[in-house]
């Protein structure tokens, strides 16, 4: 096993025996094989579209869903991975039959295996080969040949790592596109772009550093479109987020906790539990739900419970109700609450109950509701023993911030606001992440901070007060990592007012990355020409010093100075 796709990878180099996330070598192998198979399916779909004008929505949806399932902390279930691989091969055969019926020839030259495919046939060929794949054991055996090691041996670590940069960017992109699709938003060009990249990875061009980098930025450009689509999907469905106070104190009664990112699922659950006397709580990245008028209107959306994803074992063990995991991040549960937790969508954990949607996308949450009714819920006595917490405020999406833009602009012009920080991204358990907690202590009072993603949990409950001389709060939470589009809109609009570009604003971006959604957001920012981005707490293991050197030269990408957040703050105040 070698997996180095996320920031917490072992020793900053790669997980080899078991994942720091708990991923076993077997699951890692099955995920590699699934990606291999989907490279083949995506390549065939690309060819069928371009040569035969064939568009198959079942395949488009599947490709995004399957790739999303291999993102960090999404799916640890071997059984589910095997289902995905079998489905990929079934869809490949289905598409090949459609092509044959239309007289569209197979992409002969593209299906020649590249040296980095090692002893495996080209993904296009492997999918249609009549290999006997009886079950998990057979698949794990095949998967041993599809890992990163062969690519590293043939291409060298820099180029193999850049190919992985594209694969990880695609994982984030597929995840976001799939979130948008859950809200009914799709764009044929997005599917085409994703599948073109999957095709690209099996061509000789993928051995050219310049071409791989260009393809990475192309994925970043597609992601910008997807982030916009996702943002509009949310605001059209639930209204634009508005500043809203959220209680961190539970109330007496039966309870269900919702974690992940999927607002559509939360809405479905709120509908199915309306009037039942069960309170719904958000966890982790679901906190921004409270900003949406279409969600906060439900009186039984009672409050937020717990912190960022990596605290699940602490938070979930204390939660006296049932728990739903809608998307990343999921952590292998403790036995104490294993019977209370359910996965849906792409998420999965061995031995945890999974609820599937019907053919129309509807999910029946009755098992989760029944479990919540069996469990004690919060009692008056329990609550009396809990420390009382202050409310927090969420809901500063781009619409809410642009509503106060004249005040922000005036504050900048009159010197009341010297600098804005965007501290976006993920949280995690490593000690280096204390950098983000400490950074805020060095922020001068005449500055504002915009947060998005689960990195907000470093400070979300602290009182930053009001920007002196104004009525503007100093801490504005823009939402989930899924809402990164909001930050781009705000930065672009400010740049327009000051007749400059985003790089010349008194604005610093300090990104805390963890998984592959953050990878594609970084590609989007770089593709937009945003410079001087700080990235931490560690640089990606899949980028060699040579590859990092290219990004530093071209974009002045800056590694976060985790040992000295005060020094980083001084530099950022000088716009460096
Ligand atoms: Fe946080 Fe985890 Fe949002 Fe990332 S809940 S680190 O995958 O997607 O941010
Ligand atoms: Fe390691 Fe991250 Fe891969 Fe898990 S996803 S095996 S923690 S690199």
Automatic annotation (TrEMBL):
<dbReference type="GO" id="GO:0005737">
    <property type="term" value="C:cytoplasm"/>
</dbReference>
<keyword id="KW-0408">Iron</keyword>
<protein>
    <recommendedName>
        <fullName>Hydroxylamine reductase</fullName>
    </recommendedName>
</protein>
<dbReference type="GO" id="GO:0042542">
    <property type="term" value="P:response to hydrogen peroxide"/>
</dbReference>
<dbReference type="InterPro" id="IPR011254">
    <property type="entry name" value="Prismane-like_sf"/>
</dbReference>
<keyword id="KW-0411">Iron-sulfur</keyword>
<dbReference type="InterPro" id="IPR016100">
    <property type="entry name" value="Prismane_a-bundle"/>
</dbReference>
<dbReference type="GO" id="GO:0050418">
    <property type="term" value="F:hydroxylamine reductase activity"/>
</dbReference>
<keyword id="KW-0560">Oxidoreductase</keyword>
<dbReference type="Pfam" id="PF03063">
    <property type="entry name" value="Prismane"/>
</dbReference>
<keyword id="KW-0479">Metal-binding</keyword>
<dbReference type="GO" id="GO:0004601">
    <property type="term" value="F:peroxidase activity"/>
</dbReference>
<dbReference type="InterPro" id="IPR016099">
    <property type="entry name" value="Prismane-like_a/b-sand"/>
</dbReference>
<dbReference type="GO" id="GO:0046872">
    <property type="term" value="F:metal ion binding"/>
</dbReference>
<dbReference type="GO" id="GO:0051536">
    <property type="term" value="F:iron-sulfur cluster binding"/>
</dbReference>
<dbReference type="InterPro" id="IPR010048">
    <property type="entry name" value="Hydroxylam_reduct"/>
</dbReference>
<dbReference type="InterPro" id="IPR004137">
    <property type="entry name" value="HCP/CODH"/>
</dbReference>
<keyword id="KW-0963">Cytoplasm</keyword>
